[in-house]
Amino acid sequence: MRLYFKGAPLASVMYLLVALTLACALPGGAAPSQPSSPPAALPTSAVSGVTPGEPALEASPTGPVVHILAPAEFYGLDRYINDTVCEVTGAQGRAPGGDQIALNRFERPFQASTMQYLPFLDIKRAELNHEAPWIYIALWLIAPPSERGEMQPLYGVEFDIDIDGRGDFLVWGNAPTSSAWTTDGVQVWTDANEDVGATNPLEPDAPAASSGYETNIFNAGRGADPDGAWIRLGAGGGGDIQLAIKESLLGSPPTFMWNAWSDAGLKQPSWFDYNDHFTSAEAGSPLVEMKDLYPIKAIFALDNTCREAFGFTPGGSEPGVCQQARPPATGCLHCVIFGMAKVCTCLVPCQAGANPGTPCSP
Ligand SMILES: [Ca+2]
Ligand SMILES: [Ca+2]
Ligand SMILES: [Ca+2]
Ligand SMILES: [Ca+2]
Questions:
Q1: Which of 15, 25, 96, 243 is most deeply packed, by most CB within 10 A?
Q2: What is the CA(115)–ligand 3 centre distance, in A?
Q3: Closest-approaching ligand to the CA atom of 167
Q4: Is residue 17 predicted with pLDDT exceeding 70?
Q5: How far is the CA of 167 from the centre of ligand 3 (A)?
Q6: Which ligand neighbours the alpha carbon of 214 most closely?
Q7: Which ligand is nearest to the CA of 250?
């Protein structure tokens, strides 16, 4: 579903003013390659859009990270994934289902061996919203990340760009502590030699010698684009965790598959897929029905989801695809007033003047 804005929110006007200020400071609107004095780091709350597509200032390896374009608020929804939760069975130290190591699908928001439930890792829903140049991801958890105690979970998303089952990008970040967008603690990994998944993508190959995601292309604002990936606590009821990824960082793919991750246990991009690194006997199981494997052992304190399509309607045979009902692609579903703006939720942009029930396409 997608949202259509009939009016400019105040925040957009503020961003425009900041953008104009930045544009005036840069001769010809272009980023100087040799600034006469070191650029000052902009506070996160003050950064915003200069001309889309304009090259970002290159951050020096040691100097402050200079941001040009920060993500904004978002209200839309293109695709979502509902995940198994252990809210009821967690106290019994088991998952009710949803864990299939043969598909690299894990439902393990538990400590190893003790099976202590970790609800701040338990993903219940993931949403994706595309508003160029950003791909926004919202994650809903059973408990907020503030309940993580001493643990240091990562929250993120994996992208399979060519839909061959091998993940191509892993974007994840440390649990955020505020609802301000930050690149702090956010990492983006890619797989230069295309061996994520080893011989059989998503299926077990342990023990495999694959290098998984071996290449880091973004680390807390360090990378070719200092604005590549961001994280924050969900704002305004929009999930517990939100991420924003510049689509250009992924090569601006028109179609892809994606799935969500939480991980406070292994946190090893080079071990993807995890079922290629550990056998099922080493990994254990959160399912009491699996008497020979229960409880979880080497693969612990993490959760992931099935994969959902973006940019196309999946046929059902895509590797890792979610087997879930998808809403019909007709009709405006619902409209909400946000200040001066009326926002309608739709699978394609609602036309101007749309009301609930108005056909989405003119
Ligand atoms: Ca879950
Ligand atoms: Ca792939
Ligand atoms: Ca494999
Ligand atoms: Ca690799």
A1: 243
A2: 26
A3: 2
A4: no
A5: 11
A6: 4
A7: 2
Q: How far apart are CA 201 and CA 8, in angstroms?
A: 44
CA angle 230/231/237 to nearest 5° reads: 130
Structure tokens at 201: 């993508």
pTM of the model: 0.77
- The lowest-confidence range among 49-58, 97-106, 162-171, 272-281 is 49-58
- Residue 168 predicted with pLDDT over 90: yes
Name the closest ligand to CA 204: 3
Torsion over CA: 320, 125, 189, 258 (sign): positive
CA of 150 to the centre of ligand 2 (A): 34
- What are the pLDDT digits (tens) for 205-218? 999 999 999 999 99
Ligand nearest to the CA of 140: 1
Residues 6+ apart with CB under 8 A from 159: 167, 168, 169, 170, 171, 250, 253, 256, 257, 258
Whether the bond between 9 and the residue before it is cis, its omega within 30 degrees of 0, is: no
Distance 215 CA to ligand 4 centre (A): 8
CA of 152 from ligand 1 middle (Å) equals 18
The CA distances from residue 355 to 4, 66, 117, 214, 337, in Å, are 12, 42, 44, 49, 11
* pLDDT given for residue 355 in this prediction: 58
Q: How far is CA 287 from CA 245, 290, 306, in A?
A: 34, 6, 18
Helices (H) and strands (E) in the chain, counts: 3, 17
CA atoms within 13 Å, Cβ hemisphere of 154: 21
Q: Could you say which ligand is closest to the alpha carbon of residue 271?
A: 4
Q: How remote is the CA of residue 208 from the centroid of ligand 2, in Å?
A: 18
Q: Which ligand places an atom closest to the C-alpha of 168?
A: 2
In 3-state terms, what secondary structure has residue 24?
helix
